[in-house]
Specification:
mainly beta; Jelly Rolls; 2 domains; 8-stranded antiparallel β-sheet; 3% helix; elongated
Length: 484
Amino acid sequence: MPIINNATAFWRLGDPVSSNKLVDALGRGNDLTPYLRPRPVTLDFRMGSNNAPTQQLHGSLAKWGKWNRLLTAAEKGALNAKQAWPFNVTTSLRDAVVYFMLDEASGSSMYTDATGRGNTLISSGAPVQTSGPLGTDKATLFSAGVSLWRPYTADLQTGNYSWTICGWVRLTNPIPTGSLTQQIFWSQWDTSGTTSGTNLYYEPDGATFSLDGGFPESLGQGPTITNTTLHPTAATWYFVMAEYDPVANTLTYTINNDSAKRISLSPIQQPTPVPGKIGNGSRFQVNPQFAFGVRSGWDAPPLVDGSCHAYLQRNSNVSFGNNPFTVWGWFKAALGQPWQPQTLLGLFDPTTGELEWTVQISGTVLYWVIGDGRINYSFNNLVTIPNDLNWHLFVCWYDKTAGKLWAVLDHGTPIGANVSVLPGALFGNRRFTIGAASRSTGNVGQQFVGSLNAVGIARGNPTTNPGGDLDVLWNGGNGIVLGM
């Protein structure tokens, strides 16, 4: 029976960014979850502070709303021209899912959602009514201990769909600068925990308007825009607008609807689909590093950090202990021969050194490694990878009977290495990963920089005779569709 008929998992990869999964084509439930995806969080919603509450706003807010779509140029212009609910001129804006006028009287205990959808906010402290951006309208002034909040609703959450959040802000004179904390306008932000939603705020370090993109995998792991096109002046009203476009894979932050004061960050969701060797594949990459007040990017180390990967909880379809199995797939390395290890896939925690199995590239070598589930390994590093940017097929297998680790690249001659450590499964709540090394939670390491396609795992070992499994897998990348 061909090895592909014994496959326990197979990922074509290249799934669209509108999907929250990289689907197991076998339908065996091994769908991979991309680490970087915008998702709703269940934190309380706040205006004027975070959930602690800290990061206090010292200033005024007016006319804040959210739409579950991207707005047209005309609609953005209308909002920047200070049109507000009920939008009697630009009536298309009435589909807002939440809209706060923030014009209530001083000391109000409740702040109304003008849409009638019930997202009423509760006041903390003593909010004060003040003049609004028109001069004849009203706004709410925030100071120490003042915020508006409520439990989350779907209207206030963000996720993997198009959305726009915008409103008016005026910072108190003088604006606190230097090392003081951020000042929140709109947020789901729990600094005492490990998660965060979408947040719009003033960043004193750099004196900029900033935006966190709503990637709640781990606090400080998502994209952040620092809009350095303008340093706000005290006692001046500014119209700020955040947009997320999943089709263009872009997060944007604009001040005063001015194209010269618009900062965009892309790609946001990762990995991204690209042409593969067989259909589409997925591209994995290192994100630019964020720096307060200086540079937009991701809150992650700038080097090979592993933040771009996909994972699933270890199960019997990817974890085999001391039993024969085979892994294969196509890769195209963006760096040719990378100067430090990059993990294609496997069950390996580089933090503890505990390893079940992994396939890596490093320098000129393909590494096929099997461990005892602890820190003892057997490895085959006898296969050389070329220094180019082309697609290459790897096939690696554990031959229990012969006690060997076999590896072959691009339909060459299989090379074997003796197993010196009895293979064993990892223990505990571990993750199988593609595109980086494995870990139970959070950022990982050994980031693969490049593209992967048609990756599979099977019980047993491949046949190496002419017309056998190695021929089938190789020919699959040359136009013959695999039988799965």
